[in-house]
Amino acid sequence: MADKFAIITGASTGIGFELAGIAAKAGYDLLIVADETLIVAAADDLRARGGTVDSLEADLSTIEGVDALLAATKGRTVDLLCANAGRGLGHGFLEQEVSEWRRVIDTNITGTIYLLQKVLKDMVARNDGKVLVTGSIAGFIPGSFNAVYNGTKAFVDNFTDAIRNEIKDAKGVTLTTLMPGPVETEFFDRADMNDTSVGANPKKSDPVDVAQDGWDALMDGKASVVSGWKNKLQQAMANVTPAAILAEQHRKMAEPGSASPEALAKAERADH
């Protein structure tokens, strides 16, 4: 058993899986969590690399799911939390079922801040611990045809800034917000956005690079990091661009059917 223990949520694939690999290499015992059975295969993969890994399939959009995660720690001190679990949802808001947008909100906001409250309370009490929360540059942009998702990420980006100030006297606790742009993960398929300009774009960020950016910022004690120079530029532009213009720009990226035949063909080739 290692001296260090980490929880990584949303770790079955993508950024979360890559973060888990970095943490294992850094000597952390892991508890990895996702809301799908693929988390078991992810744990097997990480163990094959030499990590000590427990896995849990849990719905982190619910209080009960987060409680199950906390119970699975078996009382171990959490030295590191990567709160990466998230859910997207494409198409127009008026077309979405209540159950669909509610799950996005409950996963990205309710479950995330409940987990943060539970874990951070102990970290602040002992003045030691590290937390990385996956926000997004989407939080700076009115998300036409992605309105609920972008709204939840605006909350996460804002919320972590506020909590960081609240706990600033706990000098041994680091709370870092990772803000990527579009990443080459299963996100767009799960959000039913493969026919959009952003979903079909084969030049998304690599989750390996995004995870490393987040990890480096966390270890350096930084408040936040925007992964990728293009995303840094987009964030800077968002701060000075009128909301109506940002919303129209996002529409061109996220409206169903916005992907050109050429982009769809390139995306298809990239998948193979």
TrEMBL record:
Segments for region (Disordered): 251-272
> PROSITE patterns annotated for this entry?
ADH_SHORT (PS00061)
| InterPro entries with a match to the protein in the record | NAD(P)-bd_dom_sf, Sc_DH/Rdtase_CS, SDR_fam
Cellular component GO terms, alphabetical: membrane
Instruction: Print the keywords alphabetically.
Output: Oxidoreductase
Q: Which domain of life is it from?
A: Bacteria
Output the Gene Ontology terms for molecular function: oxidoreductase activity
Does this UniProt record's set of keywords contain Oxidoreductase?
A: yes
Name the family: Belongs to the short-chain dehydrogenases/reductases (SDR) family.
- The protein's name in its UniProt record: SDR family NAD(P)-dependent oxidoreductase
> Can you name the source organism?
Sphingomonas montanisoli
Q: What is the phylogenetic placement of the source species in the record?
A: Bacteria, Pseudomonadati, Pseudomonadota, Alphaproteobacteria, Sphingomonadales
